[in-house]
Specification:
With 214 residues, this protein is α/β, with parallel strands linked by helices. Helices cover 47% and strands 15% of the residues. The chain binds BIS(adenosine)-5'-pentaphosphate and magnesium ion.
């Protein structure tokens, strides 16, 4: 099962990817989480990536593509994976297709979690992310049972630096310009599935599970 999650920033790609990973026992590979782990650990890559991320811009392909494609060659990915946040541009998608073709593999589904821009800014300002394990919550739609701390690891929950309203607007415009064209790209390959991401997160998940089990 090789799945790509598509959708605007804040559409719920990460939320759904984690639920799919838990139910179907395949790893959740998030380019954003990989960058955030590097930022937290103070690596050179993290320092470079942060400059772009804080402005709501995409991290350049030179720093992104090999890193993510290499992650897919790890042992835990041999039965599949859920890619979240990658590919994000047509060149990234073409590089991924070429890398898979080389080893005789292909993607099974590209799932677009569709949420209009109007809903996004409210979602992002209420999101809280764990500094320890990266788990995500929402102060209204999915609050942590431990208040300001993570239910999973107990670490502190924070508002991501790139979730301020001005940065969210920039990320949305970058999404429409550079990432949305992937919807047509994967529709052309016959693997696109769309779900209504404005529903309750469990209903979104039920819609995705119905696709995967059809
Ligand atoms: P990344 O981490 O991928 O961020 P993003 O795409 O902007 O998406 P988000 O993580 O913000 O949203 P999400 O869709 O995962 O939503 P979530 O489930 O958290 O990338 C960050 C940055 O890294 C990029 O801007 C870029 O700079 C760089 N980068 C990453 N990959 C790159 C690449 N391939 N190339 C170049 N640069 C790259 O949900 C959002 C909130 O809503 C949460 O609070 C959640 O609890 C809540 N929520 C979720 N579902 C629902 C629902 N159904 N109803 C109500 N609330 C919900
Ligand atoms: Mg995410």
């Amino acid at each position: 099962m090789k799945i790509v999650m598509l959708g605007a920033p804040g559409a719920g790609k990460g939320t759904q990817a984690k639920m799919i990973a838990a139910k179907y026992q395949v790893p959740h590979v998030s380019s954003g989480d990989i960058f955030r782990a590097n930022i937290k650990n103070g690596t050179e890559l993290g320092k470079k990536a942060k400059e772009y991320m804080d402005q709501g811009l995409l991290v350049p392909d030179e720093l992104t593509v090999d890193l993510v494609i290499d992650r897919l060659s790890w042992e835990d990915c041999k039965n599949g994976y859920i890619l979240d946040g990658f590919p994000r541009t047509i060149p990234q998608a073409k590089t991924l297709d070429a890398a898979l073709e080389k080893i005789g593999e292909h993607l099974d589904y590209a799932i677009d979690v569709d949420v209009p821009d109007e809903n996004i800014v409210t979602r992002m300002s209420g999101r809280r992310a764990c500094v320890g394990c990266g788990a995500t919550y929402h102060i209204v739609y999915n609050p942590s049972k431990k208040g300001e701390n993570c239910e999973v690891c107990g670490e502190q929950l924070i508002l991501r630096d790139d979730d301020k309203p001005e940065t969210v607007q920039k990320r949305l415009s970058v999404y429409h310009e550079q990432t949305q064209p992937l919807i047509d790209y994967y529709a052309g390959q016959g693997i696109l599935k769309s779900v209504d991401g404005t529903q309750d997160m469990n209903d979104v998940f039920a819609a995705i599970a119905a696709i995967l089990e059809a």
